[in-house]
Amino acid sequence: MAVLDVRDLSVAYGDHVALRDVSLRIEPGQILGLLGPNGAGKTTLMNAVVGAVRPRAGAISVCGVDVAAHPRRARAYVGYAEQEIAVFPTLTARENVRDWAAICGVPRRQQDEAVAATLSALLLDRIADRQVRTLSGGQRRRVHCAMATVARPPLLLLDEPTVGVDPGTRRAVLEHVRELADAGTAICYSTHYLPEVEALQAEVVLLADGTVATRGGVADLLDRYGSTVIDLRIAEQDSDPRTISVKVAGPHALPAVVQGLGTDLHRLVGLDIRRSSLDEVFDRVVAAGEVPADAP
Ligand SMILES: Nc1ncnc2c1ncn2[C@@H]1O[C@H](COP(=O)(O)OP(=O)(O)OP(=O)(O)O)[C@@H](O)[C@H]1O
Which residues does the UniProt record annotate as the domain ABC transporter (predicted)? Predict the structure, then answer.
């Protein structure tokens, strides 16, 4: 059974339709990278999952519990780190995370261990006993993230959890997210940093203008929408090497391209394989207004 099952979801704010017929599923242990330009509907989708916005149409279930029919029961399965950081500024980082663990029902005798492990995973040990109001923006975001993960909910919604954090901390956050998924958590991870999606080996749903523009694994999307060019540098007798560029279906075409040089092979002095980045692929898909992908 999928941990999160979103079917034909539409959400409107007054006349403005923010999501239209969006369907997606997240299985246990799966990370779904939710991508899309500003205003695409990522936060709206997460807010609908926790029952904070009411769908105009469609259905959402979490661990088999229908969100519209049983919002509190469904919400109990979800850890949500919203984009807006919500922490108690006069409590310490540890107190914030511990109180949240208690609210989420982590048994008292397990709280200290769960809190310590989560603070440590997010590199917060050294600052755990400082009041949150004295922490930097990136440190506060990690405390906020720790609150969402400490109770190890079956479903985790992380809305741009690495905004404003430094590169080392970003790696720690990604590792923590990967470990949680490896332990079985289903994770919906929204971000504008595409290398994160690759690092997490996430499945991708790309939203554009409230609909699913495309979906799939990173490699699959690069294959479908990206391009690969092989540059061959060929030695010339009386001048600098010249470059021949060959557009191919993927890096697997390299042997055929090299063999194609035939008797000129001995003049090959270098080669480069240039692949589209995910950024390029997504810019292209969003700009092309790709036909919405089929629901899973
Ligand atoms: N409370 C609201 N009232 C009216 N319109 C809203 C509200 N919240 C969001 N919207 C609109 O709905 C659309 C989707 O917004 P949403 O915040 O879900 O996008 P997003 O993909 O999370 O964007 P970002 O990448 O900037 O966080 C936008 O056009 C936004 O202006």
Answer: 4-234
Residue nearest to atom 30 of ligand 1 (CA): 39
Number of domains in the chain: 2
pLDDT of 289: 66
Report the mean per-residue pLDDT for the chain.
Answer: 92
Q: What is the pLDDT of residue 277?
A: 84
Q: DSSP assignment, residue 287?
A: H
Write the burial class of residue 174 (CB in 10 Å: 0-12 exposed, 13-18 middle, 19+ buried). Answer: buried
Q: Are residues 199 and 249 in the same domain?
A: no
Of all protein residues, the one whose alpha carbon is nearest to atom 5 of ligand 1 is 13
**How many Å apart are CA 265 and CA 275, to the nearest integer?**
23
DSSP run (H or E) holding 17: strand 16-26
Q: What percent of the chain has pLDDT over 90?
A: 76
Has residue 287 been placed in a domain?
Answer: no
Range of the domain at 240: 227-275
Q: Is the CB–ligand 1 distance for residue 18 below 6 Å?
A: yes
C-alpha of residue 255 to centroid of ligand 1, in Å: 48
